[in-house]
Structure formats: structure tokens, C-alpha cells
Amino acid sequence: MTIKEFGDLWGLAQLLPGATICNLAVITGYRNAGFAGGVAALAGMVGAPMVVVILLGIAYQRSQEFALVHQALAGMSSVAAGLIVAIALKLIGELRKSWIDLLFAATAFIAVGLLRLPLLLVVGSLIPLAILVHVWIHLRIVNGKR
Q: Domains in the chain: how many in total?
């Protein structure tokens, strides 16, 4: 496969729904060995991770009665919460550059976090509104009405 062919296949894999690397594997497998090659390529990409996840699930079920496991999971939960807070603070630092983006983020936080409104309703409402506001601002800037 040439670099150009790879680039073309990579672009096609990105357009298809699903994980790009899995799409590329299926396309390459199909191209080299037909339908069976595509199936084999997909099985090769997802087979090993699937087995690992299943084994982890079995290990988790078998270790429920151990206090050490509960303590370790509680510690991991704290770490995950800390990472989420750190990422949120980093995003807030980026949002400070645009007060409009900060306003939308604060609105989403208040609606979901404090008012307990459904996430899909809030995001489904704010995304089109944010797009309209940003298009309106862009058009005003382009037309010189800052």
C-alpha cells in the first residue's frame, strides 16, 4: 500500500461511523482478503481488549467480599474525581478568554448540576443557541459592527 492509498483509506475510515482505526482495519482486511479478511481484521482489533474487559469483570465479581478491593476502588474514585476537577479548572482557564463561552458553560453547570435538569435537554438546547450566538457575533465582526 502506498502512502497515498493509506491516506485515502484513512480519510474514508474517518468518514465512516465508529472508531477510525477499526474502520481502517476492516477496510484493509476486506481489501486484502475479502469479507473474511474484514471480519478477521475487526476480530483482531476488538478481540483481545474484549477478553481483557471480560476477565477484569470476572475478577471484580470474585473480589467483592475483600475489604482491600473496596478501599482501592474508593481511592480510585477519589483520583477520578480529582482528575475531573483538574480538567474542569483547565477548561475554565481556556473559557476565560471568551466570556460568552464561559456564560454557556455556567448555564450548563447551573441547569444540570444545580437545577437537576436532564443533560440531553440542556445540551440539546444550548448547542444550537451557542451556534446561533457565535454566528451572529462572527457576522457582526465581518460587517464591521464590533
A: 2
